[in-house]
Design brief:
By secondary structure, the chain is an all-alpha fold. It contains nine helices and no strands.
Length: 191
């Protein structure tokens, strides 16, 4: 009852109070409160007032991922919530220098992106660009070039209106060069 009252009370509640309330309410009604807990944990992982990471940012991000994974797979918003929680967590891992753990999260993000692209028939797979960056950082240049070729091919039909097109083209050219394929035709085929 106190948790519900804390959320319903007028006045400003702190992100910490919000997370604490959702943690309690999730035990009573997971379907209703796991998505809210996931978002609240992500907000708390960065101090909203200062924009700086919370002292326990990684633990909060990992809890957000666990909460998102616990959401019923039939829930339509689950995939987006899990993707965002994984993205926040992998960024925190990279920030802390724990690079070895990031690729697994990026792979899961890519899997979610591919499933979404298949459902929506959108050729631009969310997470593909981050996956390619991770491959490149690991020295897997040929795979990174292939991933960026797929990405550029998908977004090219949108033309310059796609804000990421220029950067994507530059990343793609660099990946081709890193993979030793600098002489390759740099005109991606349309999907």
């Amino acid at each position: 009852m106190r948790a519900r009252n804390a959320l319903l009370a007028s006045g400003r509640r702190t992100p910490r109070e919000e997370v604490d309330a959702y943690r309690v309410l999730t035990q009573v009604s997971p379907a209703s409160y796991l998505p809210r807990l996931t978002k609240a944990l992500q907000r708390l992982s960065h101090d909203a007032g200062s924009g700086r990471p919370h002292a326990a940012a990684l633990a909060l991000c990992e809890e957000a991922v666990a909460a998102a994974r616990a959401i019923d797979p039939a829930e339509p918003a689950r995939a987006d919530l899990l993707y965002e929680a994984l993205d926040t967590c992998q960024r925190e891992l990279y920030t802390l220098g724990r690079r070895a753990e990031g690729p697994a999260m990026r792979a899961e993000m890519l899997s979610i992106g591919r499933a979404r692209a298949e459902l929506t028939a959108d050729p631009a797979v969310r997470g593909l660009r981050d996956w390619a960056a991770g491959l490149s950082e690991e020295g897997r240049y040929a795979e990174a070039a292939d991933a960026l070729t797929e990405w550029v091919t998908a977004i090219l039909p949108d033309g310059p209106d796609s804000g990421s097109l220029t950067w994507s083209l530059l990343e793609w050219i660099a990946a081709l060069d890193d993979a030793g394929r600098s002489g390759e035709d740099r005109t991606p085929s349309a999907p």
